[in-house]
Amino acid sequence: MSAPQPVSALSAGKDKWSSGDAYELWMARWSRLLASQFLDWLAVPPTSSWLDVCCGTGLVTSAIAERCRPSRVVGVDRTPPLIEFARRHRSAPRVSYELADAMALPFAEHSFDICVSGLGLNFIADPARALEEFRRVTRPGGVVAAYVWEYSGQIRFLREFWDAAIAVDPEAAAHDQGRRFPICTSQGLESAFDQAGLEDLAVRPLDITTRFESFDDYWQPFLHGQGSGPTYLAARDDAVRTAIRDRLRSSLPAAPDGSITLAARALAIRSTR
To answer: pLDDT (tens digit, 9 = 90+) per residue, 134-144?
Structure first.
C-alpha cells in the first residue's frame, strides 16, 4: 500500500478552525453521535488514562469522561480559542485541556493507556509524524485509535455541497476533502498506522443519520467560516454563493415538512502500541 501524502501548507490553509462557537454550529451535533459509537467500539477498561489529540471544543474528551470512567483524560489542540472554549464549557473532574501540537506532544514516553483523535487526523500537517507521537506517548500494549470522515464516500451532507459547488465553480474541486485527504479511506488509515509501527489494526465504519430541520438549518453553518466547505465559501463572491445555495435548495431531498435527512459515514481505526 502506498503511503498517505502529508497535508501541504496550501492544503492546510483551506481549513480554518478558530471559533469554538462556530464549530459547535457546524460539526458538534454529528461529532457527538460519532464519539458515542467510537468509544463503545473501543471498550477500554475503566480507570485508564486517555489522551485526546486535536480535541477541538472538547466533545470527545468530555464523552470519554462521561462514558469511560477514566483515571484522567487530557485533551490537546493547537488552536487557543478552541482550548479556551473547551475549558469554559467542558471542564470536569479528571479532565484537563492543554495547548499542544500533535506532531510534538509535550508528554513523556508511555504516559497514557490510550491515545485517540476524533475527526482531526487529516487536518494535521504531517499525519505520519503525529502517529509516531501518538505511539511514543502510549504505553506498550496500549491503544492508539482515531476516526475520520469518509469524505469520498457516504458523507452526504458534505458530498452534496461539494458536488453543487464544483458544478457552479470548478475551482471548488481543489478544496474538496474527498480529493485532498487520501488518509480518509480504509486503505489510507491502515497504511498510516502500519507505517507508524502500530499493530493489530482494525477498521470499521461509524454510520449516523444527519437530520436538518429545514434547508436553512442545513445551509446556515456553511456561512460561519469554519472547516473546509465554509472556508471555501467565505472566499467566493455573492454570485457564486447564491448559485451554490440555489442549486442545493433544488437538489437536496426535502421531506414534506421541509426536513432533510442524509446518511453520513466516518471510518474508525484502532491499533495496539
So the answer is: 999 999 999 99
Rounded alpha-carbon distances, angstroms, from residue 211 to 29, 137, 235, 260, 261: 10, 38, 27, 6, 4
**139 located within any domain:** yes
Rg (C-alpha) for the chain, rounded Å, is 18
Q: pLDDT tens across 16-32, in order?
A: 667 777 778 778 889 98
| Beta strand segments in 150-249, E | 199-212
In a domain, 230, yes or no: no
- Any idea what the CATH number is for the domain that residue 98 is in? 3.40.50.150
pTM listed for this prediction:
0.90
The parent domain of residue 111 ranges over 9-155+180-211+264-272
Buried/exposed 54-67: b ≥16 CB within 10 Å, e otherwise? bbbbbbbbbbbbee
